[in-house]
Amino acid sequence: MPNYVVGHKIPDSDSICSAIALSYLKTTLGEPTVPARLGELSPETLYILDKFGFEQPELKLSYAGESLYIVDHSDRVQGPDDIDDATILGIIDHHKLGDITTNAPLECWIRPVGCTNTIIKMMYDFHGVEIPKDIAGAMMCAILSDTVIFKSPTCTTADIKCVEALAEIAGIDDPKEVGMDMFKVKSAVEGTPVRDLVLRDFKDFKMNGQLIGIGQLEVIDLAIFDDMKADLEADIAALKEEGGRHTVMLLLTDIMKEGSEVLVSSDDASIVESAYGVKLVDNKVWLDGVLSRKKQVVPPLQETFGA
């Protein structure tokens, strides 16, 4: 029976490409491993898979009795619901250390870089395994996505060097051009149901016993949201109530202006104001220079909540 590799709920491109890349590496090293996913894929991820000729990983929600590698997260709330009944073989991640625990030793690669695929590139190098052209292309795209084409404060020299190396393997002359094509796909939101947009890149976090949901939509021009902003605000308020969340935030990130407008629905909006040193106006605020949920949004909010 093969092992599995799976990323977080509401998977993004890093989670999916990490699952594909790590499963190939492990299988090549003699450990049959299958990529899986915990949800439907975003248009950007579908674009990447189509560009490099991949099928979608298996949709698998239950892992009881299975052995698996966790990629791109280590928070229990973001993983499989029955994770306590699975055997975790390893965690590969670039976020803060979460609350997943194990009963046995595990392989653990956690690095302060911009993307999980950067770490997996290091794993290929460590084991001396050649990266196939198609996998290299997908990994490159995931890094460009997570680092916002190197604009995110999470981006490191390692991420840039990995993109350069992966682009060479994949035969791509201008990776930044590919990155812009991906963000154009992300920006095509017209006709998409509002709930699908809110959940396109959405993560739940536990902060001092409270459930906090934070979504993010990265586009090349915030004007595309002008006619739908009221609907987005209404939907995050509904999502907050439906999930028993204390707060739901939606970041509308303009990668060209390099900042985010944040829409907020909260039981106590003063916590959000205190976290970022701002005043909300009609439950929203512009945060200049804020591109990263991981580095610029979650840490100050978690500190303000007290855990």
TrEMBL record:
The keyword Manganese applies. Residues 179-305 form the DHHA2 domain. The lineage of its organism: Bacteria, Pseudomonadati, Pseudomonadota, Gammaproteobacteria, Alteromonadales. InterPro entries: DDH_dom (IPR001667), DHH_sf (IPR038763), DHHA2 (IPR004097), DHHA2_dom_sf (IPR038222). SUPFAM superfamilies: DHH phosphoesterases. It holds the Pfam family DHHA2. It comes from Psychrosphaera algicola. GO terms for molecular function: inorganic diphosphate phosphatase activity. Keywords: Hydrolase, Manganese, Metal-binding. Its EC number is 3.6.1.1. It is an enzyme of class 3 (hydrolase). Its cofactor is Mn(2+). This is inorganic diphosphatase. It catalyses: diphosphate + H2O = 2 phosphate + H(+). PANTHER family: BNIP - RELATED (PTHR12112), MANGANESE-DEPENDENT INORGANIC PYROPHOSPHATASE-RELATED (PTHR12112:SF22).
